[in-house]
Amino acid sequence: MNKMIVTILTGLMLVLSPTVWSHTDMYLDTVKALHGGQLRMAGPYHLELVAKDKEIALYVTDHADNEINTSGGLGKATIQIDNANISIKLEPAGENSLTGTGTFLVKPETVIVVFIKLPEQEAQAARFAPFKPRASAVSAQTQENGALIGDHHH
Predict the structure, then answer these.
(1) Are the beta carbons of 116 and 60 closer than 8 angstroms?
(2) Residue 29: its pLDDT value, please?
(3) How far apart are CA 135 and CA 111, in angstroms?
């Protein structure tokens, strides 16, 4: 009986914990990223994507926002624009980033899927729609939760 109560209480704590929900895409869309990009969670990492016409930078941190060294890592970005896919190779550039260039123009409906593999770590992937209006993400979370918690926009 005591095991069952402990299990139920532990489950409730996990479900109701703000930390568990703080890593959803909707929540991460409300967080002001260090480099002005969009944040996503991918396994043990937070990935920040900064995409401009012809350039992509991906910054890698842990869940406490500590930089993760990307030396020896590799990655790929698949850019989905106008029913076409463009692949861009991402290579280490600086302490915690991977970058790549190619021939593409970023539009509001652009979707970018990134795959990264760091030495001695499992491969991770994340999906970004970096140019959708942020207001829609904030509005969706407000409707879902009844109030916006942790809004870091200024």
Answers:
(1) yes
(2) 65
(3) 17
Question: Alpha-carbon distance 58 to 60, whole Å?
Answer: 7
Instruction: Decide which of 1.25.40, 2.60.40, 3.30.1380, 1.10.3470 is the CATH code for 22-145.
Output: 2.60.40
CA angle 72-77-119, nearest 5°?
Answer: 20
| Spatial contact of 137 and 29, defined as CB atoms under 8 Å apart | yes
Q: What pTM did the predictor assign?
A: 0.70
The helix (H) or strand (E) run that includes residue 28 is: helix 25-28
Residue positions counted in the chain: 154
**CA atoms of 101 and 93, how far apart (whole Å):** 12
Per-residue pLDDT reduced to its tens digit, 97-154: 999 999 988 888 889 999 999 999 999 999 998 666 554 444 444 444 443 333 333 3
> Could you say which DSSP state residue 135 is in?
H
Residue spans per domain, the chain: 22-145
AA letter at 19: T
Distance CA 148, CA 5 (A): 32
In whole angstroms, what is the distance from residue 79 CA to residue 104 CA? 8
